[in-house]
Structure formats: C-alpha cells, structure tokens
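Hi there. Long-time user, first ticket. I'm pasting a complex I've been working with (about 327 residues overall). I'd like to know whether the download I got is complete or cut off, because the file seemed smaller than I expected. Thanks.
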Amino acid sequence: MRGGRAYARLLLGSRHLYAGVAPAECSRVETREAFLSKPVVNLDLDYPTAGPVRAVTDEERVSYERDGAAILKGILPLDWIEFMRRAVDRMMQRSDPSSQNYADEGSPRFFAQAFPWLFDDAFKAWALCSPLKEVARQVLTDAKSINFFYDQIFTKEPGAAKATPWHQDFPFLPIEGDQILRIWVPLDRVTADSGAVQYLRGSHKWGVVYHPVGFKPTPQITDAYKESPYVDQPDFEADYEKYEWLIGEAEPGDALLHHPKTVHGSRGNVTTGFRRAIASIYTGDRVVWNPHAANMFNNKSLTGHVRMPDLQAGRSIDCDLFPRVWP
Ligand SMILES: O=C(O)CCC(=O)C(=O)O
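Hi, the file is complete. Here it is re-exported in full:
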C-alpha cells in the first residue's frame, strides 16, 4: 500500500508479463521485443490495483448504442490517472522517432504515439490490468471474451491550435466486426476550448465507411491510405452546424466511449493547459482480422515500429500483439 492505495508490481525482467498481486487478473504476454525493432524501457514499477469506481449503467449503454458515443462520468480511480499522467509525460519527453507531431512547424505540439504499451510498462499495466477492460466488458455485453487491440497517446500542448480532422476509426483498423470499442481517457480537464473530442451523434448507424483521413496531409501519410476500399467523406466541417455533435467535455476520472464508425474529431487547444489523453481499443470475440489495403499498418509513420502479426483474414485476432484480457 502507498498512501492508503493499493499497488501491484509488474514483473517484467523475464520474458513474460505477470501482474504481481493478482496474476489471474492480467494476461501473460510475450515480450515486447517480439514486436519492436528497438529496446524498450523496463521500469519495474508498481501500478495501482483499483478497479472501476462504479459500474457502467444501463442508461450509459443506451446512450452509447443510440449516439455511438457516451461520456462515463467519474468511473476511473484517480490514482490510475495520476499514474498515467507520469507515463504520458515520460513518452512525450522520450519523443521516440516513431511518435508523431501533427502540429504545423513551429507551433506547440499535437503529440501522438501509437502502441505506447510496447515501450513503457505503465501503459502495459493500463492496457492489460486497469479498469478499462472491465469497462469494455460492461459495454460489449454480448462479448464472450475481450482482447486489447491497441493504444494511442494524444496530447495537445497549451496553444496547440491544430484540429484533429473529422474521421471514423474503423477504416484504419485491420479488423471487421461490431464489437470494437474506443475508450478515450482524459488526464486533464477537457473543455471545448482545450480540444474536447466531438462525436457526430448517430453516425455509427449510417451504414457507411469513409476513406481513412490522415491527421496531416503529408505524402507519407496520405499515400498509405490511397488504396482504401471505402468511400469519399463529406465535408463535415463546412456543414458543421447541420449536424448534432456530442461535445466530450470531461474531467480526469471520466471515460469517453465511441464506436469505430462514429465520425469524430477535435478542435485545437487554445488554453494555457495541457490536453493529455490516452485512447485504447478493446474488441469482442466476434471481431475478425481484415488486413485491407489501407489499414494502419500501411502507414509506416504511425506503426513502422510494430510488426504486423501474421493472422488469417476472417479469423480471430487472438495473438500476443492483441492479447486476450478477459476472461
Ligand atoms: O484526441 C484527439 O483529438 C483524437 C482522438 C481520436 O481521434 C480517437 O480517439 O479516435
């Protein structure tokens, strides 16, 4: 116990990951060196053990189903949030060559990093042992098992005016199915002015998938998505007022959910504070592998540091890169 809070220890010196206190709770996963071309930081750290503060309610599940997005207020323990703030700050300081800065030259950073759990043990604990998997289980109610798919850091530094373009997540993903849940967790108070994520209510039910939208129009990014099997996206920005948006203003301890086909994006951060967030994807057992020509592993500036697993199209995604976290 530290300051009255329960912590557990990741035992990462060996080839496998175990959760120190409750091994049954956390998955065993092959070492990250199997996926990364570079050495990783083994921090040998203690992580919080607290579960969700409360259960997901029926009302929240109904909102998520109806709008394709929902804000779960006060569901994550703050000791986890503090722990992950330090982890995000470490990754921002590290500024690995595999990270992105989507801001314009000379502006405060819009920092992003895909698969941080392969670099830093705190993210590994967050991915595999935190309350997120329980939230996923309570939202994907018909799933017989849950896998962790991947994580991303999204930080807009104070004054980072760069917007996140309107997009769906689905076209980036080499997977198919409905049991796909994005959980976006703010580590700072988030307002419309600091870049709250905005969700186009109900767009997950339109039955359409748009081409992947790169977060920066550089050839390295746009070329990766050229062969997209999907369709042109309308100009949501031009018609912003015509649509109904859920503006994800939130506090640390809240979790924001969205469906992979929900159109979403965010404005820049015009405040003097940071807007740090971690977004993770969890999937249910009916999700299958679909390595289409424009999936995110094609964008080497995003995922060049990770080896795409050799899975069979149409089959389960169960593997060490996408580990089973429940049961
Ligand atoms: O944080 C942002 O601005 C982007 C978030 C996002 O696109 C996502 O979580 O899918």
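A couple of notes from our side: The CA atoms of residues 5 and 184 lie 24 Å apart. The pocket of 2-oxoglutaric acid is lined by residues 154, 164, 169, 182, 184, 195, 197, 264, 266, 277, 279 (CB under 6 Å).
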